[in-house]
Design brief:
Elements (H helix, E strand, L loop, with lengths): L7 H11 L1 H38 L4 E5 L3 H10 L7 E2 L1 H7 L4 E11 L11 E5 L23 E4 L10 E4 L2 E8 L10 E5 H10 L7 H4 L3 E2 L1 E6 L5 H12 L4 E5 H44 L1 H9 L4 H31 L3 H8 L8 H16 L1 H15 L2 H8 L1
Parallel strand pairs: 4-8, 5-7
Antiparallel strand pairs: 1-10, 1-11, 2-9, 3-4, 3-10, 5-8, 6-7
Helix pairs in contact: 1-10, 2-8, 2-10, 2-12, 8-13, 9-14, 10-12, 10-13
Length: 403
């Protein structure tokens, strides 16, 4: 302390160090608010981006699946949860013949136990490159030719590189492409043509019996694109009326999106309420703590006045103390949120079970600045009343009250 100039900032720093337990408690309070504000805003924005991305680029209007597996198809698409369910491939041709259906494309789902790229099971999705209109639009680079036998396309979160190879069930596959970030289960899935998917199913027989290995005429779902000018609900009902007896059920993509949107709205509302409550709580607690501590330091402040400190100097000292508390708390809270939210974004996405797409760097920077300002203002705002009250008091009065 002696080696540093005795200015307002250094006195404020010394005061915080002297009351370290109180200071740490206040810093922690601000940090919790900053963490919640930054982390919650990033979470809300990521969910909003994922929802918008899903709505714009879902591709299929209707998903035809085996009866009873409506939830499974949503889990596979939204969260990438390994799922296996099948019906006869003839369903694709049947659905294609329904009036109002424009395009159909079959898909085949196979779950792995593990892979060289990942420490968790993966969803393998077989698709028909010739008819597909759901997966290939997500590819980050257009392929020179359709995905051939033995080739795979990986989701954006798969830890592997294009041009390298991955192994499933003791078979190696060449990575020829990568999908853009989708915010859906596609990010943690691997894609291949139907022939390759059936080869994988046969290779998996050494570990566990697989229906596709016994019957190559099985698929998991049919993606349906309706013709322009037709009503999706009418087409879905037509498919059900014609083929429900064959164990075919349908999921209307827009209904699925609306359900997700409702869940998202409830979650974001909860986050906003939590942020508002924490901000009010932080300001209220800091006002009480600053009022109590400032009253207990009246003798200290009167000594500063006797030594020549002006009223404005005392006010600046108190505001500097609260500003330092806010600065440290804000930095700790935001940095902690960054260390948790960014590295574990894939886990958070799967935990929430909602489309999750991280905002751009520009948006993240804007969120960080907003969170910093909102958190930083808590301390000075809470202390301004006490600071003005102490600064406006006369020396004699302050000395008597501090005795």
């Amino acid at each position: 302390m002696d080696s540093k100039p005795l200015n307002t900032i250094n006195i404020a720093r010394y005061s915080l160090k002297h009351k370290s337990f109180r200071s740490m408690g206040l810093i922690l309070l601000v940090a919790v608010f900053a963490f919640t504000l930054f982390g919650g805003t990033v979470l809300s924005k990521s969910l909003e981006n994922g929802m918008n991305n899903l709505s714009k680029r879902m591709g299929a209007d209707i998903l035809a699946v085996p009866y009873g597996y409506e939830a499974a198809i949503q889990s596979a698409l939204l969260r990438g949860e390994p799922s296996t369910f099948y019906f006869d491939s003839a369903v694709a041709d049947k659905v294609a013949g329904v009036e109002g259906v424009g395009k159909v494309s079959p898909q085949l789902y196979i779950a792995t136990l593990n892979a060289g790229c990942c420490s968790y099971p993966l969803q393998l999705i077989g698709f028909d490159p010739e008819t597909d209109f759901v997966i290939q639009p997500w590819m980050s680079n257009e392929l020179a030719q359709p995905v051939s036998d033995g080739e795979i396309v990986i989701g954006s979160s798969i830890n592997a590189e294009v041009g390298k190879k991955l192994k499933f069930f003791n078979q190696t596959f060449l990575i020829v492409g990568r999908l853009e970030k989708t915010g859906m289960g596609f990010d943690t899935s691997i894609f291949m043509n139907l022939n390759t998917a059936k080869q994988v199913a046969k290779a998996s027989e050494r570990l566990k019996e697989h229906p596709v290995a016994e019957n190559a005429d099985l698929i998991s779902s049919v993606m349906v694109k309706i013709e322009n000018g037709t009503d999706v609900k009418d087409i879905a009902n037509n498919i059900l009326q014609a083929y429900a007896k064959d164990g075919v059920h349908v999921v209307v993509a827009q209904n699925m999106i609306n359900n997700i949107s409702d869940n998202l709205h409830g979650l974001t509302t909860y986050i906003l309420i939590l942020e508002a409550v924490l901000w009010i709580l932080a300001v209220s607690v800091l006002i009480i703590v600053f009022s109590v501590t400032l009253n207990g330091r009246k003798r200290e402040f009167s000594m500063y006045r006797v030594l020549g400190a002006t009223k404005s100097k005392l006010i600046k000292l108190i505001l500097w103390e609260s500003s330092l508390i806010s600065l440290l708390g804000t930095m700790v809270g935001i940095l902690t949120a960054i260390l948790i939210v960014f590295p574990f974004s894939t886990y958070i996405s799967s935990l929430l079970g909602l489309p999750y797409l991280m905002p751009s760097y520009e948006t993240l920077f804007a969120i960080a600045v907003m969170s910093f300002l909102m958190s930083f203002i808590v301390g000075p705002l809470a202390s301004v009343y006490g600071a003005v009250k102490i600064g406006s008091a006369e020396i004699y009065t302050t000395m008597r009250e501090g005795e």
